[in-house]
From TrEMBL:
It holds the Pfam family 2_5_RNA_ligase2. SUPFAM superfamilies: LigT-like. InterPro entries: Cyclic_Pdiesterase. It comes from Lentzea roselyniae. It comes from the Bacteria. This is 2'-5' RNA ligase.
Amino acid sequence: MTFPLDPPADLENADVLRAHDWQAFSEVDLMQNHWDRPGWLEGRRTYHWMLSFHDDQAVQDLAGQCQAELLRPDFDPVPLDALHLTVGRVAFTDETARATVGRLVEIAKLKCKPLAPFALDVGPLAGSRGALRFTVAPWLPLLELHRTLAEATHDVFGGADRMHTKDFRPHLSIAYCNQTVPVPDLLPLVSRLRALRPAETSVEAVSLVELRRDGRTYRYDELARLDLAGR
């Protein structure tokens, strides 16, 4: 389910985006088990569009600082070498021919070529019903990227109820909830961590990955990297 349900009033202003995420999380009563997800059978994998931060030291440092304060049995930290921003799910691998994936990559490369790299601020910490996660700002270039990849995906797969940009809420999760947790009990801790300075990074490429679940964590293998060339 889309969270927050309503988008922020301003898609570029970092202060507005951060306040919107925090307000939405503060209004949640209970976090739920993120891993209780339909369709995810043991060993099943998916194709996803992602932004990977496995080699971004600034983002990893901020995530690591927060995770060090979140050593609790009710949360599963995201490995620092698996930090990612999910742009959209394409399909389950067992329902998709590899030739179809290859065609998708070629179409997406052409569509993404005019997109330029862009700066992105990661943080501060907020949350959703199933994860503690960083606000990211601004949203406009992320929405443009999502819209472009959604067009490519729809060209190959059709609609099939996937990748609707109106439902995209960019974020970067750092810890997944594995049981029911009262949010009011968490707010003082998360509020303190919000004082940490956001990380500054840049987005220069998007990846198509094969995503899998290893216990209570996500791991993925990059299948294709699409550089944003701006030309």
